[in-house]
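User: For my dataset I need records formatted as: sequence, then structure tokens, nothing else. Please produce one.
Assistant:
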Amino acid sequence: MGAAAVAAIMRRREREVVDDFRAAGATSRETAQSYTAIGLGQSLGLKRLRERAVIREAAPGTYYLDEEVWVAVRRTRRRIATVFLVILVIFLLGALLGTVKW
């Protein structure tokens, strides 16, 4: 399985975790819930979101989704993808123009 496929699977799993928190209403410190109440077990997607402070601990054993951080993480990912694509296009144009004889 390629790196792009693994990244797509991880993004999907992270979105599923976010959707579970939204469905449970755990979107603020006041409405934080335990993983079992939300219906989650430990997963790599959940771990990654905790590391990025998208999922925050309100009190010992209760967690909530920080929507602002989630939006910022998604915006950063889009920005990185856009920069990568621009660099790729510049590289391909340079390669194409380097092979064209004027």
